[in-house]
Amino acid sequence: MSFSNIHKFHIPVMGLAFTIDSPIKVARFGISSVMSIIEDKLVETMRRHYYKEFGEPYQMITSKEKDFRAKRITDYLNLVNRIVKKQVADMQKGDFIPESDTTKYFELLPDDSKLKALYQKMLQTSDKREKESLEVFLKQQIIAGNIDVNIMTKLDKPAADQEIANNSDALSALRGYALSGLRNSSIVLSAGLNPNLFNYIAQFKCFKPDALGHIEKKIILKVSDYRSALIQGKFLAKKGIWVSEYRIESGLNCGGHAFATSGNLMGPILEEFKTKRTELALNIFEVYKNAILLENQTAEKPLPIKITVQGGIGTFDEDTLLREYFGADATGWGSPFLMVPEATTVDTDTLDKLGNAIEQEVVLSKNSPLGVRFNYLKGTTSDLEKQERIAKGSPGSPCTEKHLVMNTEFTEQPICTASKKYQKLKLEQLAESDLSEKVYEKAKQDVLDVECLCVGLSNPVVKTYAASFVKGLTSVTVCPGPNIAYFSRKVSLKEMVDHIYGRGNVIDHSRRPHMFIKELTLYVDYFQEQIEDIMLSLDPKQNRKNQKFHKEIKAGVDFYRNKADEFFNDAEKLKVFLADLKLLEARLDELNPVLA
Fold it and tell me: What are the residue ranges spanned by the domains of the chain?
């Protein structure tokens, strides 16, 4: 008897620190989670903490060692793997008593799980021999959730040390993961196609099937639409690499960096994946089949592909809609887990701010040095520190980690747009430019908004574990999705899992909009912002782009209106959804004449 897919959800990567040790917290319960491995200094901080926590001798891997980034990552992942394996072994030897991890494992399972049914049978049987037999069998079925990792492909700064080939940030992180002892694990690649990184993947056997078709380390791609999945999937297939999962993420209704589509909404995107799922596999397989022939290998049919969804999910009904109507294999629940200390690493001060956050405080900002929009909670210690520096006439941040040094506008060597150096030079340039007052003030504010993320997104570890990271810098940046405004209190892991599976409710807000409505609202707000920018710049090219944007959003509205009856069994929820849809369409129509 096989019990695969223990849970129907995963915890996506969040920031740098928030999920850096989530597998140690939740993997033993069969819950998969994703860690960012790009910030190796943070990884080294976690190595130091957990070696001491679990009583193993710690030996620092200094930046003077050859290939230190990859070594830090490999060793941390091996450490996490050892810890999780020991946790599972202890649970398999544990007793079914209240509050034990062994009991908790089965209590957390979804109610339609066959394993959960056997657990319930064990609890109810009065036959001692049968009960003992079931207990032994159930403990043998305990398996850990996946220990997965993430690399944001845009974060690929060349290494200062040129002695080692393929030593940029992303490539060395990939190497660190590939050389680790993780099995049945995946690497999640986000932020688009990086040819150098994708080519480098093909050099490692662990990403390719063995003789039995099993892949030791799978590839997961975060994608915004079907076209992106097809292009990236084919690119890797040409290298003999099969993508095992396409993780569809809402363009704006998610945490962290927000990659707005050209007006394509989540519903129509999911519908295309639903109708073209087989076509996607077959098209990529044709490329893959030809590529592996060059390696004297053959394949008769496409390997398995999972389609999963994340971004803005907040209720059991939404989760069910995504899995049952759109055919998603699983869902990703991110921001709500920031309120679960048992699952994520969030310092107490930030946890309080997240719990008290209202919709207007979670903004689609321009705070990221990458030049990509960034969901951001206002009022954090990083935000306050930034405002203090601006008020003192000394904007910008110290640039200690240098993962985002990409700008060469003023310097031969790339620098970060959040740095003091860049902001000083850019503000001087703007002051000397012949700009209207409105255009100047907007450009100035865009410069001042940008802040350091490398340190701010790492510092929850500093605050939570009293660890050292960058001396004198302890402020925290947090990047929740807009969904966080509806999760207002700290909850236990069990409470959150019960919420996901419809066994409870942790949302205190009676008027939380449906995830599709919230995403549409974000896109209408974004559209309005783009139009205001047009009115400042009078750029006809941008005008044509926004006309297309408007057309795509309207098509999405029509899709929702036509499909709404199939989405809802509850007449009142359908009525509210359609009313919200009508209001947003009216807003959209009011904005459209501006484009004429």
Answer: 27-172, 202-332, 379-477, 513-596
For residues 26 and 493, the answer to whether their CB atoms sit within 8 Å is: yes
Closest-CA residue to 580 (of 512, 485, 486, 482):
512
The pair phi, psi for residue 66, each rounded to 5°, is: -65, 135
Which residue's structure tokens are 């799978």? 218
Tokens 């073209």, residue? Answer: 276
Please state the length of the chain.
596
Cβ 39 vs Cβ 47: under 8 Å: no
d(CA 468, CA 442): 37
H or E segment and range at residue 34? strand 32-36
The H or E element spanning position 309 is strand 306-310
pLDDT at residue 594, rounded to an integer: 58
Kind plus residue range of the DSSP H or E element containing 186? strand 185-190
Locus of tokens 């490692």: 204
Q: Which residue has the tokens 């003789």?
A: 211
3-state secondary structure string, 107-122?
HCCCCCCHHHHHHHHH
The number of angstroms, rounded, from the C-alpha of 354 to the middle of its chain's C-alpha atoms is: 18
Where residue 263 falls (left for φ over 0; alpha for ψ -120 to 50; beta otherwise) is: left
Beta bridge partners of 307: 246
CA gap 476, 455 in Å, rounded: 8
For the stretch 163-218, pLDDT in tens is 788 999 999 999 999 999 999 999 999 999 999 999 999 999 999 999 888 999 99
Is 329 in a helix, a strand, or coil? coil
Cite the DSSP H helix spans in 168-260: 169-178, 195-201, 226-237
Task: Identify whether the C-beta of residue 185 lies closer than 8 Å to the C-beta of residue 70.
Answer: no
Alpha-carbon distance of 287 to 489, in angstroms, equals: 49
Query: Is the separation of the CB atoms in 484 and 467 below 8 Å?
Result: no
- The dihedral over CA atoms of 103, 104, 109, 115, expressed in degrees to the nearest 10, equals -20
Choices 3.40.50, 3.30.70, 1.20.58, 2.30.30: CATH for 513-596: 1.20.58
Contact call for residues 416 and 406 (beta carbons, < 8 A): yes
Burial degree of 216 (CB within 10 A; 0-12, 13-18, 19+): middle
Q: What angle do CA 525, 13, 368 make, to 5 degrees?
A: 50
What is residue 158's predicted lDDT score, i.e. its pLDDT? 86
Asked whether the beta carbons of 176 and 185 are under 8 A apart, the reply is no
CA-wise closest residue to 161 among 41, 73, 71, 66: 66
End-to-end Cα, the chain, rounded Å: 63
Nearest CA-CA partner of 306 in 202, 220, 208: 220
Contact present, 246 and 305 (Cβ < 8 Å)? yes
Q: How far is CA 122 from CA 108, 133, 234, 540, in A?
A: 16, 9, 48, 70
Give the separation between CA 142 and CA 297, rounded to whole angstroms.
35
Residue written as tokens 């049952």?
Answer: 324
- CA 194 to centroid of chain Cα atoms: 18
Cα 470 from Cα 561, distance rounded (Å):
51
Amino acid at 119: Y
Q: Residue 506: what residue type?
A: V
Residue with tokens 């989530």, as numbered in its chain? 22
Task: Report the alpha-carbon distance of residue 90 to residue 84 in Å, rounded.
Answer: 10
How many CA atoms lie less than 13 Å away from 274 in the CB half-sphere?
Answer: 15
Weakly modelled stretches of the chain, pLDDT under 70: 1-4, 160-162, 537-540, 593-596
